[in-house]
Amino acid sequence: MTISIKEVAALAGVSTGTVSNVFNGKASVDRKLAGRVREAARVLGYEPNRAAAQLRGRPARVVAALVPDLNNPFFTNLLASLEACVRERGFDLIVASSNGSPREERERLGALLAWQPAGLIVVPCDDEFESRALPARRRVPFVVVDRVPGNFRGDAVSVDNADAGRLAAEHLTGLGHGEILVAASTLGLQNIRERCDGIAQVFGGLGLPAPPVIEVGLSFEQATERIGTFLAGGGHPTAFLALTTFATLGILTALREWNRSIPGDVSVVGFDDYSWMQAVSPPLTSIRQPVEAIGREAWERLRARIEGSGQPPSRIRLQCDLMERASTAPPNGPRRMPADAGGTAGEPAG
Amino acid sequence: MTISIKEVAALAGVSTGTVSNVFNGKASVDRKLAGRVREAARVLGYEPNRAAAQLRGRPARVVAALVPDLNNPFFTNLLASLEACVRERGFDLIVASSNGSPREERERLGALLAWQPAGLIVVPCDDEFESRALPARRRVPFVVVDRVPGNFRGDAVSVDNADAGRLAAEHLTGLGHGEILVAASTLGLQNIRERCDGIAQVFGGLGLPAPPVIEVGLSFEQATERIGTFLAGGGHPTAFLALTTFATLGILTALREWNRSIPGDVSVVGFDDYSWMQAVSPPLTSIRQPVEAIGREAWERLRARIEGSGQPPSRIRLQCDLMERASTAPPNGPRRMPADAGGTAGEPAG
DNA sequence: GTGAAAGCGCTAACAA
DNA sequence: TTGTTAGCGCTTTCAC
Prior knowledge:
The structure is a homodimer.
Chain A: H1 5-12, H2 16-24, H3 31-44, H4 50-55, E1 62-67, H5 73-88, E2 92-97, H6 102-113, E3 119-122, H7 133-137, E4 142-145, E5 156-159, H8 161-175, E6 180-184, H9 190-205, E7 213-215, H10 220-232, E8 239-242, H11 245-257, E9 267-271, H12 275-279, E10 285-288, H13 291-306, E11 315-318, E12 321-323, H14 338-341
Parallel strand pairs in A: 1-2, 1-3, 3-4, 4-5, 5-11, 6-7, 6-8, 8-9, 9-10
Antiparallel strand pairs in A: 10-12
Helix pairs in contact in A: 1-2, 1-3, 5-13, 8-9, 10-11
The structure holds a DNA duplex.
């Protein structure tokens, strides 16, 4: 048998209403009575039931989060940030993954919404985000994060993707690289296209054509394979620019397999900034997304809506930073020593 | 106004009970009526309210998960596995992080339990896991994962830690390493101590003393600093053995800063197995934990309990694998070529 | 300051 | 097969 407010009331010799008041600090309760109630609750091991509380018109204290992939550290770091924010305000977080599938996205969304959460944070699995009809119809406040469809007009927070692309391109062109290869996950995503635009802008400003872009997919294995294929095709850029973490990983792996030294033979700019990027040799120059801030901003917006803010929906774009480390250098630069040039570039290892 | 079963019933011209039956497939409902109900629900945009369903004695369809750190990929991979299992059975997952603090652990546990979940999966923040009194008292089925206190007698799933240590030690001693340094997070955790025991066993069997162990903490920064200090103290092992991912990262970073080449100057065995470990040069030899299987096993146990299994509590230990890659080699072995000895870190043959 | 009682959305028992 | 009704645990008037 589960212990309810009723048992506590009985033991303390008060009414259930009083017990409720004690636990919610609403109406003022006599100190003595309150003490008795708390004691009774302790003895009985009573814990309030949130489902019941919520049912009775109490503003819900849950927020739901839906991301495309729980194995992707960018999304889980986002969740970590969200979880901290949300807890701080006494909310609980319920999470789900759409596994990159629109169908699953819709399903999960339904399940999530069935908890009548106070709000919803969602990283859509694609630019359609058709399911947005759902939260909208249910009038649940929601904010879209990271993958913001171009035509979306609600609250949204993302990174300034074009600027991120610009940052990387400027760094590389500044070093003297003219022939770079951009490794995108998929051009089907608005944020990725924006990053490409930023890169093209920089090249355009220099009177150069936009660099080629290849799509390497959304997993490590696929990315490695695609970059390998590119290398096998005789591609010889002086620098690689990754637009996602998996692209970064794929570039690194393929380059190693082909015995290309970094930055001797080729420079590499990675995307995102994880500990391992500082641990490896050479440490990776990369574009850092302010994940924690993204989570905080998303929560701030959602919180405002939950509290009934009448502000018009707004879109914020956070700045990325270029973490300059040792994987980028001028093409054919000082790091290219005889020992490295030693011939085997062109044959895959093993 | 939120749309309830009542509005649907009214529009469809049936009773609420019938609507409930339609959505739960319990009693058989006339096909025509069912169609009308569904149509009404669609028109109204009705979604069932799980909180209410749960309140009314319906077996809860949520499971709660509590981990020490949402920024640690081991735990988030575990959650990813759990989420997939749980969803498959129509359960929702609510997550929380204890941030490694017993106080927060207790708090979160209370919040989680307040949803009256069908079950609970917890990775304790320490070996005390004093809070276990909570789920036990509330009679909520729960299973402890990964950090299983030595004296814990309930359902638990972890890795065979001693064996993991043995695997790594055998690999290293097999290569001819006698002087190794073990980098543990903290000896305060049972699982870490077990890994050390496994290592000591192998050395003991060879008539060698157990290798020294240093505690490098639970973060990347701390680990890097501790290993750096060790190196600064003149330590010269021929191999490093990491017992956690952060220890791995710390070893790699410090070694790079000190210009020690891998595996030329020193071999490294990492812990856990992430994509980046294959991407870096040299690819890292490491101990892989079967994270996904851990999640699945945990869920299987929990599910059995939820369904009322009377089995005695059981503890399962999953096997780890050694992923043999290029960061380990015999000490002063064939890989130590003149070119490498020159001091530039991390540019092995590949 | 406290208690009594209504009712949140739903399901389950029972009646029709 | 369908409708009616009594609660699940809680919050919230509204008397007192």
